[in-house]
Design a protein that fits this description.
Shape: globular
Strand content: 5-15%
Helix content: 40-55%
Structural class: alpha/beta
Number of helices: 12
Strand order of the largest sheet: 6-5-4-7-8-9
Order of helices and strands: HEHEHEHEHEHEHEHEHEHHH
Number of strands: 9
Length: 286
């Protein structure tokens, strides 16, 4: 089960290359959770786990979930955190980006929150729309941009209709990864409102780019964010607004979170480390 293709919110790590050349499995987030919530799918799509040469899980917990489903494959499952590498475009036109999104550019008080995800139900991009729009009516400086590919066309239509009726919320077109990183670097915060995550590349990339993260308090997000240390975790839309306001009003807390998050990514999500792990796994096959 390979992770989503590189693009919005996904770093191009070594696993993408190996997926194309080797018979292996990559346990990321939503795909594995889907299989474990709906075991009947395994009857037709268990990717011949017993014949797989090796599998990689982002976390120990994901390894244990997979091993419980395929106990005979336990010794073939390795743990390697997702590696992150960001490369923001130096020619990205931030002001044109805002203009195209109909976001006011003639203000120093702009607080743009970016929710980066493929438009599908498990990412739940509509979770915060209503409360955010209410907040925008009271404070026009805050805007929410939802950005990512239209993975589910039917659901994307629902999102478009909802956003049309929500002042302060904008559905933005997908960007090349370098431009997306540049946009992240200029925004106020990155948001994750997913129902389920394995390990969000968008969160890790924001940390690497020294932008604070507000994420829904689900196991996958809580595994990489320590609340009020490396990011902020919210359990409902109202708490999201409270935490966002506290971040806006406390630059010292913002700086401390950014610093600790950057250190965390450097230590635990090195792109070079991920590449080395996959290189070693390939050597074992020879």
């Amino acid at each position: 089960m390979p992770r989503e293709a590189p693009g919005n919110g996904s770093s191009a790590g070594g696993s993408q290359i190996i997926t194309q050349h080797l018979h292996h499995a990559h346990y990321s987030g939503s795909p594995l959770h889907t299989y474990l919530r709906h075991p009947s799918l395994l009857l037709t799509d268990n990717f011949d786990c017993l014949e797989t040469r090796f599998a990689v899980a982002f976390t120990v917990k994901l390894k244990e979930l997979a091993a419980a489903e395929w106990p005979d494959a336990r010794k073939k499952i390795y743990v390697q955190s997702q590696g992150i590498k960001t490369a923001p475009s130096e020619t990205f036109d931030w002001y044109r980006f805002l203009q195209n999104a109909a976001i006011p550019v003639n203000t120093d008080r702009l607080h743009l929150f970016l929710l980066i995800c493929g438009l599908r139900r498990v990412k739940d991009p509509l979770y915060l729309v209503e409360v955010f729009s209410d907040w925008h009516r009271k404070d026009p400086s805050v805007h929410l941009g939802i950005i990512g590919p239209a993975v589910d066309p039917v659901f994307t239509s629902e999102v478009k209709e909802k956003v049309k009726r929500a002042p302060g919320v904008h559905l933005l077109p997908e960007l090349p990864q370098e431009e997306l990183h540049a946009a992240v670097r200029r925004c106020f915060a990155v948001v994750n409102s997913s129902i389920s995550e394995g390990m969000s590349a968008a969160i890790l990339e924001a940390m690497d780019l020294e932008i604070p993260v507000l994420a829904r308090n689900i196991p996958g997000n809580a595994a990489i964010i320590k609340h009020k240390e490396t990011g902020l975790l919210f359990s409902n839309p109202q708490e999201f607004v409270v935490l966002s306001k506290s971040l806006m009003n406390d630059p010292i807390m913002e700086k401390e979170i950014i610093t600790r998050a950057k250190d965390y990514v450097k230590k635990h999500h090195s792109w070079e480390g991920e590449r080395k792990t996959y290189q070693n796994l390939v050597l074992r096959l020879q």
